[in-house]
# Entry
Amino acid sequence: MSRETSSSLGREAWRRLRSNRMAMIGLWALACFSLLSIFGPLISAFSYDQQNLDRVFEGPGVEHWFGTDNLGRDLFARVTHGGRISLAVGLLATLVSLVIGVSYGMISGYTGGRIDAWMMRFVDVLYSLPFTIFVILLMVLFGRNFLLLFLAIGAVEWLTMARITRAQTMHLKKAEFIEAARALGYSHGRILFRHLLPNLIGPIIVYATLTIPAVMLLEAVLSFLGLGIQAPMSSWGSLIKEGAEKMDAAPWLLFFPGTFFCLTLFALNFVGDGLRDALDPKTSKD
Amino acid sequence: MNRFILSRILQAVPTLWVIATLTFFMTRFAPGGPFDAEKTIPEEIKVKLHSHFGLDLPLFDQYLLYLKNLLQGDLGPSFKYPGWEVSELIGSAFPVSLTLGLLSLCIALLIGLPAGIIAALRQNTWLDYLPMSLSMAGICLPSFVLGPMLIFAFSTQLGLFPPLGWYGATDWVLPSLTLGFFYAAYVARLTRAGMLETLKLDYIRTARAKGASDWRIIFGHALRGGLLPVVTFLGPAFAGLISGSFVIETIFFIPGLGKFFVTAAFNRDYTMVLGTVLFYATLILMLNLLVDLLQAVLDPKSRSSS
Amino acid sequence: MYSHRLNNLLLWPASLALWFLLHGCTQPTNVEIALDEQILHFGLGAEPQHLDPHLATSVAAHNILSALLEGLVGEDPKTLKPVPGVAHRWEKSADGLTYLFFLREQAKWSNGDSVTAHDFVYSFRRILNPSLGAQYASMLHPIKNAKIYHAGEKSWDESKVGARALNDHLLEIVLEYPIPYFLELLNHYSWFPVHRPTIEQHDAYARMGTAWTRPGNFVGNGPFSLTSHRINSVIETRRNEFYWDADKVRLQGIHFYPIESVDTEERAYRSGFLHLTQSVSADRIDYLKEKYPGELHCEPYLGTYFYRFNLQSPPFDDLRIRRALSLSINRERLVDKVLKGGQLPATTFTPPGTGGFFPTPKFPYDPQLARQLLMEYLDEKGLERLPPIELTYNTSEGHKKVAEALHGMWKDTLGVEIRLLNMEWKVFLSTISRGEFSLARAGWIGDYMDPHTFLQMWRSGDGLNMTGWSNQSYDAALARAETSVSPEERMDHFQTCEDLLATEVPILPLYFYVHLTLRHPSVKGWHPTLLDHHPYKHVYLATEDEQ
# Structure
């Protein structure tokens, strides 16, 4: 019974989303950038680490569509390769924060009582920590591990996810279909994951879409401090950092990765806003 | 109210203790020590340095010694700059970061609030789209791009402002703008969203029907509701301003706390790292308390939920 | 219902923008003001860890200490040859073991006290005192019996250390063995004097981390004195009226700015905030040469940039692989295309011209021979190709660029896969010192103008060796160079050392450093020197027409 309701709700939400022009443009843009990032390195004649010391700092042209960098590497190849890295970091770190945050929030909200109180107090305490500082400390002290990068960044963002999930869980806990499931004797685990979770998807997706830009910005800041991706690989963040330094001599080095980065972030924000409006009828725009 | 404040203060103590312990052991387990240098130090000298800083004691003893000093308010000497106490260094750097943070916040509010209010009141017109697009740019443009752009334009080319430093009032402008722009964007969006929410409410429609002017509506009724999400955002935002300012401080060569922290981490300056982390944590806890109190004033409904 | 008053809200941001634009109204820059004020604005590159000359270790510290203190001898601003400092003349015994320094009577500290020979003996005692833990104490080991005292077993008098004040203005120094470059050594800040009453007042004789180096406490005998020190912000110095040669000093003060980010420093220079930068990013060289002709300077610097092999880490235990890697590096191309600062390719370890030493160039470029050697190795071991090589370097744009360039060269010539591993400085140092590397980036700046400062590192078991290379012939040649008196013999022995390095290839010398700096044309009396030493007393600020 709950499945029927959610699919007609889903279709309703989709219809609202489709009428939101900015969100649809965002969705198309995201698709474009993702495709470019996945297939760009494949269609490019150059590899992202292929140097050509005779052709450094060349502007965009026929051979090098986006120009070359300080070691004569093709910028198009590097930007698309960087897209893979940035989007991967964005998705994976968000996934980490999702998994931790949603599980935590669900368990806390569902259990209620003293356990819930303590769990939330823990979250409050963590909320008050200067998390960016810990991430930097972690990266400085323990080295430049790709895995550590996702985990560290993801660990910064899970708190808000936990809070939102908990609030929703507490709200849904009282719903009839949950009481029915309990009366039927379903185990708590089953209730959590097969009944509660599907109904939380909405806010989770919204929040996830809005977390990805935050994660990508955090990765850019880490690159600025020299704590991000290892050379010769690149992410949009590290490319932007290099480009910003050479803005006056070689503006294309900033322009292309910067545009990709900013437009992707724009798109994610619009889609996220659109999803939020679509899934929650109370905040409709008109 | 007093009981609320007291309980929060009591909660803060174990929090800070956990943070101190975590940071202490994290820094000690990291590879590299404060006295590694390219001209490798002869063993005897290294031993001497370690004993001067008490690094030759067993780790747990060092930890207890540190806690004991901490309770007396002694953060210890900096490992990297031995003639200076950590508390002195924090004391000189914090006012700088504070000024930077406050100015950025002012700019954020001065630009963001009006922008958000106008956007809300003139929804779906160009007065809405323009500020909202600009704010989107503000959120998505990293400060290490905006900063050099501003310096290049207003300092190198036009010679209007100094390119770096924190020596006089003119030095404050560009860094605060760079940092403030980002937060202005957030403030604008939050204000707009909050006001839109409030403007739909019935009592506003009643007021309009009764013929109240725009000004009256804003300041008499809607602003409170519009400000609420901004205030909630302010606490962590201010903390973020102070702790996240290291990018700005590097670009503009500002001797603020963020820069000290990052350099200390890179230098394995244990005492400095611990000092800064604890300082930030205390600051954020206090700010959160303030924000919660402010929230309670603005929105009586939230009082009961604590 | 469109309220006009609403639009007043727009006035906020509008007036803000207007104020912003109007306020600036072009400010005079530091460089412009300096022509009247005669204050030099110097980019220091890093915050010095110590201002105590007996504890300092960095270039940043040197730049400040050479303003605040003066040693027995000074340096000629163009050739760096020893000239009278606190000592107005000296005598050397026939056997080269005993030096007599005649101190000038007018030499004074910045509080008016006289500088005496006793001050120097006190200072030597201090830095050699084992309880102080001075890192550069070994610079004074040439003094007879200084090493014994430093080892801590005997007292100063018991050790009979060869430094004593014959009277207030006569200092005698006896050496362990004759050193041709002894007078040059005296320019290192480890030999500088400190003011005894100040040290004792702050109980700093055998303690580090005291307040004696703070402005208001610091007493020095150099051309400038310390007036202000804000960490990570600025270090200000003003003309010292008590300096014996104060009449010659034309600058009124020097402000040092410890800007670490090379981009920020460049912006500072271009906006007229600094007269001099500490360095320049290699990527910016072409652009800056065009935009600021005559202001970008690429000056040869006494240092070698090289990579270290770890001979205990296969495949670098095999000479053929080491040679193959060395032969595949096109150093000319590296220097021309990647570094672009006018650096010289390093075909020896010691830079040519160091103290009159011109080693024969070795370390050739021969990709064919390289491939041959690689094939030989692979065949013998029965391998298809080499396992990936890890190249370790400390985080920096410059090192990254070189590493990436070499990665390209080795990939092209040998088909070898290189994994670039960068880590930040502290981690890097501890990794290298523990031998947890295969191939690592390194650099060495000479402390004084003699090949010894470069070649002594490769002695078996030396603290700086870290390659695991040990060669008895090398050790023997080095020992002979240390004790011979004839300059030609010394050079021969040093050449033997260089030959051995070229045959055994424990290291890969890449290029000789060049000091890249932006310098404003109004800075006069500043001459390029191999050690990047610039005696401030000769510097002044003037426009082209003035003198």
About this structure: The interface with chain B takes residues 121, 125, 127-130, 132-133, 136-138, 140-143, 213, 217, 220-221, 224-225, 237, 240-241, 244-245, 247-248, 254, 258, 261-262, 265-266, 269, 283, 285-286 of chain A (CB under 8 Å). The two ends of chain A are 32 Å apart (CA to CA). The mean pLDDT of chain A is 82. Residues 75-111 of chain A form the longest helix (37 residues).
